[in-house]
Specification:
361 residues; three-stranded antiparallel beta sheet
Length: 361
């Protein structure tokens, strides 16, 4: 019994060491990343199917909780039992801080070729005999404002890079994308053709692979331009009355649905006035006049007007680039000043009128 206990303790300690090494590769030195755990049942023999269903430990009805690295460590004993029962155990970091570019099913020669080409991964693990996954960790760009095309373009660029590297180095073309889970190190591969071989971390590297980051950023910037153009066309279609504005409650901000619809109405009116006067469209002037109307006629708060401008003005990302937030702030501030000055002039005029009537009696 003592030998059996010692064996189990040593096996658990080995899994703990493997997880500490793997979580470090994932950039979780500060314990801030959260993880989804997935257990996938495998049949015992090739050609068979397993009637059991995939189990996600964090699922609670329609909601799901994710785990810290320490919490994953605390579940290794339970996950070891699931692994013995024939489940493959996968981990996926749920974080906006990093993007993970994983290439699956590479040979040792392919991994060596990748390195010689200057693409040094943050982690390499052997999932079965002469079968490797390589992982690159790159920092994600946080959205600077609502509608910022950079984060979406970055994800699409990451997916494109996974496809390219998979093709270039002979990886698994069925396992693509930057939102894929990877095998939990220290656990055995339960696919029947893999004979319960253990997943082992074989190499780690700190920092960012700069050649890969350069490829990613080049494609990201190209795609961001396409996305910005697409969004500009969509917004212009709304102002031209060709497309109906649709409020998305999942992406709601400060401005209410009514505020945004009024903002669209006010902007359509301003555009119509400019066209009636046969002026060349100056979108920045139209933005300003629309903000004035939303403050004065609509009675909306400045923060709601700012949010509406951010969501409605066409070609905002194309026109203002990285200065969108500053532009929004300056435009709304100028509109507030204009409304206040107009109000002061009206008050002064009323006072002069009242004064003149008193002296005349």
């Amino acid at each position: 019994a003592g030998g059996e206990t010692m064996s189990k303790t040593e096996a658990l300690a080995a899994k703990e060491r493997a997880w500490e090494r793997q979580s470090s590769i994932l950039g979780d030195d500060e314990g801030l990343v959260r993880y989804r755990i997935t257990c996938v049942p495998r049949p015992k023999h090739i050609g068979e199917t397993d009637p059991r269903t995939t189990w996600i430990p964090g699922q609670r009805g329609e909601t799901e909780v994710f785990f810290t690295a320490a919490e994953v460590k605390g579940k290794l004993t339970m996950l070891s039992r699931k692994n013995l029962e024939g489940y493959d155990v996968y981990i996926r970091p749920m974080t906006a801080k990093y993007m993970y570019i994983m290439i699956d099913d590479l040979s040792a020669d392919s991994v060596a070729k990748m390195r010689s080409d200057g693409l040094v991964p943050n982690g390499v693990w052997e999932t079965s005999k002469d079968n490797f996954q390589v992982l690159f960790r790159v920092p994600r760009t946080a959205p600077a404002y609502y509608g910022d095309p950079i984060p979406e373009a970055e994800t699409e660029a990451g997916n494109a890079l996974v496809r390219q590297l998979t093709a270039d180095y002979g990886g698994d073309a069925k396992n693509l994308g930057v939102k894929k889970a990877f095998r939990l190190a220290g656990f055995s591969n339960k696919k029947p053709e893999r004979h319960s071989e253990f997943c082992r971390v074989t190499a780690t590297e700190k920092g960012v692979c700069l050649p890969l980051l350069a490829l990613l950023e080049k494609e990201r910037d190209r795609l961001a331009g396409e996305l910005a153009e697409r969004e500009a066309v969509r917004r212009q279609g709304i102002l031209d009355g060709k497309v109906e504005y649709t409020y998305d409650p999942k992406n709601k901000g400060v401005a209410s649905e009514g505020c945004i619809k009024d903002f669209v109405r006010f902007m359509r009116r301003e555009v119509g006035l400019w066209k009636h006067l046969r002026r060349d469209i100056d979108q920045s002037s139209i933005d300003f006049q629309t903000c004035v109307a939303a403050l004065k006629e609509g009675g909306y708060a400045p923060e709601s007007v700012a949010d509406a401008l951010l969501r409605v003005s066409p070609g905002l990302a194309k026109r203002k680039g990285s200065h969108v937030s500053d532009y929004i702030q300056r435009t709304v501030s100028k509109a507030i000043t204009a409304v206040e000055r107009e109000s002061e002039k009206k008050d002064a005029k009323r006072e002069r009128g009242a004064g003149g009537g008193f002296l005349g009696r």
